[in-house]
Structure to design on (316 residues):
């Protein structure tokens, strides 16, 4: 571990698992005097309240946790001011910080964003990059301003997107990269060597929030596009299709062949190597899938005792 740097009163605002590596790195390197996260939400059977991953980790690390429902409330703003922060690091917080909150820390609010801005501003940059077939993505550290992910860039680093990357695998790599990059940025900020660069006006795209409706597979699409859909929606909401009146989730698949001339959704073959399905163009080999109410299975297990000859996948 690097030597502890000069004192810096840091706050942290984040909610999901993506933000956890950054919180850990900042606690280890600088110390964090307060964590903001969204209020506990109902989840699971019976809908009991669940703490966010960031709340759980902050409490484990002995850091005070604050959960205002909005920073538009005067009491939330006063709480932030009372911490007398040098900087507030934000990672997938999920709540809007109004101008008064952004202006409160002495060195401003610094955001960890999981894309190479200005591409994929918004809520779902990881999934959108996969859906679009991007070959690269990365992390941008930016100074926050009132616009949605429009602030000046302080650091950026790219990584390649692998042919088998899912949202989960890409998420994990980007979370670790974000933790590393934000520590570098804060060090440069303390040393006065950080360079801020305005985002270009060209190449702006918006990463709209993912909805469950998008998970429905349309087998008339190109096999490559359906393959990207499967990867982008793993682990949520999971690409979905229908089979004999049942819903089936597709967890893993790969593009396997050229044009086959069969109606889209037709099962061309089912072997231990996978379930071959005709698409609008080309074919897709399903490697791992799940019937509603059952556990996910490898294709070789799924087809045991379930003949698929002549079967056809349809919209769910």
């Amino acid at each position: 571990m690097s030597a502890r740097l000069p004192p810096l009163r840091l706050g942290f605002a984040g909610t999901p698992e993506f933000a956890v590596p950054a919180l850990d790195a900042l606690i280890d390197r600088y110390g964090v005097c307060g964590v903001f996260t969204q209020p506990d939400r109902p989840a699971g059977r019976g809908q009991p309240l669940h703490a966010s991953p960031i709340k759980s980790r902050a409490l484990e690390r002995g850091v005070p946790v604050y959960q205002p429902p909005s920073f538009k409330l005067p009491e939330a703003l006063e709480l932030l001011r009372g911490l007398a922060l040098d900087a507030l690091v934000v990672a997938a917080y999920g709540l809007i910080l109004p101008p008064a909150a952004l202006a409160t820390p002495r060195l401003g609010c610094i955001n960890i964003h999981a894309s190479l801005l200005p591409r994929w501003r918004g809520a779902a940059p990881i999934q959108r990059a996969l859906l679009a077939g991007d070959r690269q993505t990365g992390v941008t550290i930016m100074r926050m301003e009132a616009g949605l992910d429009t602030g000046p860039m302080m650091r950026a680093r790219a990584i390649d997107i692998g042919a088998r990357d899912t949202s989960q695998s890409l998420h994990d790599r980007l979370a670790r990269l974000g933790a590393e990059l934000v520590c570098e940025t804060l060090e440069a900020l303390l040393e006065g060597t950080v360079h801020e660069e305005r985002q270009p006006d060209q190449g702006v795209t918006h990463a709209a929030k993912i909805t469950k409706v998008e998970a429905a597979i349309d087998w008339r699409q190109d096999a490559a596009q359906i393959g990207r859909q499967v990867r982008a929606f793993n682990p949520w909401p999971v690409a979905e299709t229908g089979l004999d009146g049942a819903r089936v989730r597709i967890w893993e698949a790969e593009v396997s062949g050229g044009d086959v001339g069969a109606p889209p959704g037709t099962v061309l073959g089912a072997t231990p190597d996978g379930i071959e399905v005709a698409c609008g163009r080309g074919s897709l080999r399903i490697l791992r899938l799940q019937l509603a109410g059952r556990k996910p299975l490898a294709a070789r297990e799924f087809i045991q005792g379930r003949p698929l000859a002549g079967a056809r996948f349809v919209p769910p």
Observations:
- Helices lie at 20-29, 53-60, 74-82, 99-102, 125-131, 167-191, 223-232, 299-302.
- The chain has a mean pLDDT of 94.
- Residues 128 and 138 are 13 Å apart (CA to CA).
- The first strand starts at residue 10 and ends at 14.
